[in-house]
Amino acid sequence: MHLDFLTEIFAEHADDEAFVFRGDGYPYRWLREQISAFHGQLESASIGSGAVVALHGEFSPHSVAALLCLIERGTVVIPIAPSSEEQSGEFIRIANAAFEIRFDDARELAISRTGRSADHALYRQLADARHPGLVLFSSGSTGTPKGVVHDLTRLLRKYRTRRHCYRTLAFLLFDHIGGLDTLFYSLSNGSCLVLCEDRSPVGVCRLVEKHRVRVLPVAPSFLKLLAISGAYRRHDLSSLAIVTYGAEMMPHSTLAKCAEMFPGTTLMQKFGTSEVGTLRSKSKSSDSLWVKLGGEGYQTRVVDGLLEIKAESTMLGYLNADSPFTEDGWFMTGDCVDVDGEYIRFQGRSSDLINVGGRKVHPAEVESVIGAVDNVEEVVVFGEPNALMGQIVCARIRTTQDEDSRTLNRRIRAACRQVLDSHKVPTKIEITDAALTTARFKLRRSESS
Length: 449
Known about the structure:
Blueprint: H1 4-12, E1 17-21, E2 24-27, H2 28-44, E3 52-56, H3 61-72, E4 76-80, H4 88-95, E5 99-103, E6 109-113, H5 121-129, E7 133-139, E8 145-151, H6 152-155, E9 168-170, H7 177-188, E10 193-195, H8 201-211, E11 215-218, H9 220-229, E12 242-245, H10 252-261, E13 266-269, E14 271-273, E15 277-283, E16 291-294, E17 298-303, E18 306-311, E19 317-318, E20 331-340, E21 343-349, E22 354-356, E23 359-361, H11 363-371, E24 376-386, E25 390-399, H12 405-419, E26 428-431
Parallel strand pairs: 1-10, 3-4, 3-5, 4-7, 9-10, 11-12, 12-13, 25-26
Antiparallel strand pairs: 1-2, 5-6, 7-8, 8-19, 14-15, 15-16, 17-18, 18-20, 20-21, 22-23, 24-25
Helix pairs in contact: 2-3, 9-10
């Protein structure tokens, strides 16, 4: 069986909570029974090994049970979270999904055929191995979704090693590599996963307090909002042992604030990509952005300042894009890093670099400075073409409170001039009411992203 190692854990922890959702507990016994019930429905719909299936759903006990059932049946699964619904038609077209599954009001499976038929070399590779597959979508530099195809037998192999049993909050999304990592880590250790619908600072703090959550995996943008909201002061978060952060660059100013919000809690940077999965990591310290990556099944190297990874869990390839691998099999992440012995420090994406008269500017460096300025809730830094300099540095700001734009611009530029070289100081500053991060916790560096 594809999930034999989980079946043993489900039996061992039959009466323990697998999930808490909307205040109700769902034991592992329920999860096993629900998976069995879904098998009958999928069998009736002729969904078996090799079928390509789009699974629409939020992070809920029923959607997890359906996901596990589809894996057991050897299908190729495309999870689609509510935040991705606008693009779901494009995802289904690229992946050539033959079936769509949604949930009706009674949380039963509503199965429909798309009329499509999948015939791709990567799917044939999975069929030949008789392995289940996973398709995730990762936006390219142009914003065009890239279909990432995984062999789930390989991707799930690392979860066969048991680790810590911690009550964890599922903050990251159902169709996000970090969200799936949280899910399988929790299930493979017989832990309880507290499922989250309200991802606001108050909503998250309430769940942590009520259910005594031990591990909180979030994005830096959320931690910045949490600090601004002050919600951490109004709730008892003393149960937290570990706060992990990833999915985007962490400003040092935000990390310093986290030490105040979570005294005595370990702060840990995580790193993963849709293409290789999530690596084990160890931060040099809770207040440091230097991190050591790797673990069993993963190798890392830095070539010309860019991180490359070789992993047993690496994807089979893209459905609709060129290979990102070197000739000797290393995945080129496109992440710029500094190196200090075994540790690296992320500087940002190479595709985001701004070239000002031949001098390179990492947006994350400027964002860290601006993000520490009072009344700045969110900031994204990007380059714009310039006839004289090639590019200029621009910043888009969302404020906590209304403020005169000229006053804010002066304060921001003054803060930047104190610590940044002159060519890194933004030439153009815009104020917006729009959110500057996506549902996947990535900064919107273009209006269309």
